[in-house]
From TrEMBL:
Subcellular location: Cell membrane
Membrane topology label: Multi-pass membrane protein
Entry similarity comment: Belongs to the TVP38/TMEM64 family.
Listed GO CC annotations: plasma membrane
Residues annotated as transmembrane: 12-34, 54-73, 85-110, 138-155, 167-186, 228-245
Keywords per UniProt: Cell membrane, Membrane, Transmembrane, Transmembrane helix
Protein name in UniProt: TVP38/TMEM64 family membrane protein
Pfam families for the chain: VTT_dom
Domain named VTT: residues: 76-190
């Protein structure tokens, strides 16, 4: 006997709940608590808190970072920068990488369990072919999605889940793919006074220009430099080389 249709849709509820929670937090303005103004204003207190108990602070930072990834808050750059400031470039990058990977795996698992089969079953043949091609070169594609800072993190977590990528492949490609950016942002955080100076300059320029959101003046443009973009684009191209090689071998003529 076929399972009732409502049971299939019941599996989608975890993803719906996660999306509803994310939207609610964003509408409620939670991201203002992750502005660099808020975080840098309390940097002396944060440093003292870390000095009182390094591993406690390290665990709290890990859990907080995992939470922001699970609810898909667009604050990963700020979080990684903060971790670099609190724990140094290496320890800060490592906690960021592990937390971001953990959160991504949670979202991936929810997406695969809840929606993957339902969406693919109801999708057309074109999406089915796209999913098959994505699975065939899943590691390279996930690496590219992680290396290039142009795709929302939630999209790079859910798309591989919907396309049926294996969890182990997704987790490993995510861990490797986010590592270069994590070390760069954590290093920027370790030299936080440079970040503060950049933020202050951006804020003053915003005020002079008559801007209305000057507290958020330090955007990705100030942190993601052209050199960083070029580096990540180069790494993304390297990640696609195995795909290009297989395509060329399969079509030599």
């Amino acid at each position: 006997m076929a399972a009732p249709a409502w049971r299939g849709w019941l599996r989608v509820l975890p993803l719906v709940a996660l999306v509803a929670l994310s939207v609610g937090l964003l509408v409620g303005g939670i991201t203002r608590w992750f502005s660099l103004d808020q975080l840098l204003a309390s940097r002396a207190y944060a440093k003292a808190w870390v000095a009182e108990g390094f591993w406690r602070a390290y665990a709290c930072a890990y859990l907080a970072y995992v939470g922001t990834v699970i609810v898909s808050l667009p604050v990963s750059v700020v979080m990684t920068t903060l971790c670099g400031f609190l724990f140094g470039p290496v320890a800060g990058a490592l906690v960021s990488i592990s937390a971001a990977t953990t959160g991504a795996v949670v979202v991936f698992s929810v997406g695969r369990t809840a929606a993957g089969e339902v969406l693919l079953r109801r999708a057309g043949s074109r999406l089915g072919r796209l999913a098959e091609g994505f699975r065939r070169d899943a590691f390279s594609y996930v690496m590219v999605l992680r290396l290039l800072p142009v795709f929302p993190f939630w999209m790079t977590n859910l798309a591989p889940a919907i396309f049926g990528v294996r969890l182990r492949t997704f987790a490993l490609a995510t861990l490797i793919g986010i590592s270069p950016g994590a070390f760069i942002y954590a290093s920027a955080g370790a030299g936080v006074e440079t970040v503060v100076a950049a933020h202050q300059a951006a804020k003053e320029a915003c005020v002079v220009a008559g801007g209305i959101a000057c507290d958020a003046a330090l955007s990705l443009r100030a942190v993601v430099t052209p050199q960083l973009i070029a580096t990540l684009l180069g790494l993304g191209a390297l990640a696609l080389l195995p795909v290009a090689w297989r395509r060329w071998r399969g079509n030599p003529g």
